[in-house]
Amino acid sequence: MTRDIININDFIILVEEAKINTKSFGLASESSSCSFDEPVISVAFYGSGNVDLTVKYGVKSKQFNYTKGLALSFYADQEVEFEHTVESEKPLECLLIATTTNTINSLPNQEGELFGEMLNELVNPSDHYVEGPSFIMTPQMQEIVDSLFNIEYQGKTRVMFFRSQITALLSHFFGQLALLKTKKIKTPEREKLNLAKDILLDNIDNPPSLNEISKQIGWNTFKLKKGFKEFFGVPVFKYLQNERLTLAHKMIRSEASTVQEAAWHVGYDSLSSFSNAFEKKFGYRPSQIK
After folding, report:
1. Which residues span the domain enclosing 174?
2. Sign (positive/negative) of CA torsion 146, 147, 148, 151?
3. What is the band of 121 on the pLDDT scale with cuts at 50, 70, 90?
4. What is the sign of the dihedral through the CA atoms of 202, 144, 174 and 232?
5. Contacts of residue 223, Cβ cutoff 8 Å, sequence gap at least 6
6. CATH number at residue 283
7. Distance of CA 181 to CAs 75, 134, 175, 221, Å?
8. pTM for this prediction
9. Backbone phi, then psi, for 129, in 5-degree steps?
10. pLDDT tens, position by position, 208-254
């Protein structure tokens, strides 16, 4: 487990990473807990992996069993404990942006007002832990989170990069939150759309057709295509392509796979097609990853 804390303006940025190498350690899973020294209002963004999260406060608890790509807002005081369970196939990448309740009104660029308007239930909490809006990140948000976990800059340059990206990430978060409130997508529909997304990600190398996905979630293809784009911001198979390329990037960067192996793993039969799509998304070819 690595945990890095960065202070930017009046925001506390917590960057957590953890993974288990069963070949080296022989462990099936590992848990890590954390809490806050004072009440905070936070947004957590989860990168790759699908780590389990348990939130404990008093005799209450809340379980999250699918966190990959999740943007989760919450209020928490000193009585709340957050526990991540990491497995070999479920590494942790969590980026948390927090501000204390004492400093929220002094945030720059009217950000404090945004928190008050959009996350009023967190600014005026009714319990030790209050969960605010949560949703699956858009591809643009996911790219920012991925860039912050793959940053190679150090010192002042690293802080400058974080400052710019954190501002962009919060802008996307509040923008998406406003869109979701305007669209008023009901909870049952969100569950269906998240199920469709899970089906795609569980079959990333050989995804089912739109018709097959529609049958599995009980919708017709028109409703699936329309709802998916409204909820996730991109069409179904554009979302799948983004996930494929992001996974391939991580495999190549970590030296877990060659370029050819990564392309096959995420469902590309043609290396040239994979390289072209990769360059279009990241701005460089997979062979240029260092």
Report:
1. 2-183
2. positive
3. confident
4. negative
5. 214
6. 1.10.10.60
7. 20, 12, 10, 24
8. 0.69
9. -130, 125
10. 999 999 999 999 999 999 888 877 777 898 888 888 888 888 888 88
Q: Do both 79 and 177 map to the same domain?
A: yes
Question: What does the alpha-carbon distance between residue 109 and residue 47 come to, in Å, rounded to a whole number?
Answer: 27
- pLDDT tens by residue, 3-54: 888 888 778 899 998 877 655 445 567 888 889 999 999 999 998 777 889 9
Do 275 and 207 lie in one domain? The reply is yes
Token pair, residue 200, equals 């795609």
Closest Cα partner for 45 from 7, 115, 98?
A: 98
Residues 6+ apart with CB under 8 A from 10: 99, 100, 103, 104, 106, 107, 108
Handedness of CA 111, 150, 48, 81 (dihedral sign): negative
Domain CATH number, residue 143: 2.60.120.280
Q: How confident is the model at residue 72 (pLDDT cuts 50, 70, 90)?
A: very high
Tokens of 232: 């996730």
